[in-house]
Write a structure and sequence with these properties.
The protein contains four helices and nine strands. It has 181 residues and is an alpha+beta fold. It has one domain: Alpha-Beta Complex (Nucleoside Triphosphate Pyrophosphohydrolase). The strands form two sheets. Strands 3, 4, 5, 6, 7, 8 and 9 form a seven-stranded mixed beta sheet that branches. The protein starts with 5 loop residues before the first strand and ends with a helix.
Length: 181
């Protein structure tokens, strides 16, 4: 994380209220906009989620498993545009994304940093021959897993996953449970 990265500060209704350096927002518990991307593929009729294990050099949640990509839009950057940019930077994947909505969460970390985020949840689909080349500065490992297996792992070993993953996954699961109109 560089000192010059900035995030969009927001109120609890996701209305922009300012800009701050990313590290400052995390040090001072400032609510800011973020996004969590889930890339899926269908195996028969079962959706599989692409998880990443965060690099050990990350400023928080290092080594934890999480959704395919997560980050923050830059000031004046649309969230979908930011998510596509970061998905390419982190996982080398380019695919259309769809917004499922957002939720607010707060997570405190042992190093004193705080995630106080309005987290936009986005999904996209991998093509059959999707080649994944994760950026080793961001991702140390990746794997595909069904939503049901991921829920079991989250229940059994919650400390192996990022604090936002469970709530974001609920939005993905709800999306697949909702019948198409």
């Amino acid at each position: 994380m560089t000192a010059t990265e900035q995030v969009i500060l927001v109120d609890l209704n996701d209305n922009p209220v300012g800009i701050a350096e990313k590290i400052h927002a995390h040090q001072h518990n400032l609510c800011h906009r973020a996004f969590s991307v889930f890339i899926l593929k269908m195996v028969e009729t079962t959706p599989q989620v692409l998880l990443q294990q965060r690099a050990n050099s990350k400023y928080h949640s290092a080594g934890l498993w999480t959704n395919t990509c997560c980050s923050h839009p830059r000031p004046n950057e649309d969230t979908l545009v930011a998510a596509k940019r970061r998905l390419m930077e982190e996982m080398n994947i380019d695919t259309p994304l769809e917004s499922l909505g957002w939720f607010h969460y707060i997570a405190h970390f042992e190093n004193g940093l705080v995630e106080n985020e309005i987290d936009h949840v986005l999904i996209g689909f991998a093509n059959e021959n999707q080649i994944i080349h994760p950026n080793p500065a961001e991702v140390q490992n990746y794997r595909w897993i069904s939503i049901s297996e991921l829920k079991k792992e989250l229940a059994k070993h919650p400390k192996q996953f990022t604090p936002w993953l469970s709530e974001a996954l609920q939005m993905v699961e709800k999306h697949f449970a909702t019948p198409a109109l």
